Structure prediction request, 75 residues.
Amino acid sequence: MSKSLTISKEKKKVLIEEIQTYFLNERDEEIGELAAGLLLDFFIDKIAVEFYNLGVEDSYRYMSDRLEDLFAIQK
Prediction:
């Protein structure tokens, strides 16, 4: 079962503005707030979870390494 990631309304507004700025600067194309919001929703639903999972895996490896360091100081 896959859970969707959520972001605050304030952060979503900022990200939508960044998408609009990207399209204007990189593609010389104006897109509306609705189109940018739909694109952001697509990225959140389809792509963000992959990056989230990578972060969880990295955290797990980091914590595992720290636990090994802790066990190394046992007497």
